Structure prediction request, 85 residues.
Amino acid sequence: MVAFKTHSQIPEAQRPVGVPLDYPAIASFIKSMPSGVEKDIAWQNWEYSNEFLRSNPLISQMAPLLGLTQSHLDQLFILAGSRQV
Prediction:
């Protein structure tokens, strides 16, 4: 079983700089989620993921908070998929 830390259990020095502060609407959305595994996973994904899946329901739920429509998301993921790293 994977042990996830909650947002408050992660020392401030280990948190990525600026991510939650740059997007207060996302931080508020996650904070408003009911306590539990889903909320903890949302924090982990938001703060530490370097990969985002278009099929993740949280992506669709958070998009409007960033001013993105579902069409914008589709275009963003298509563009990202066409880029070579």
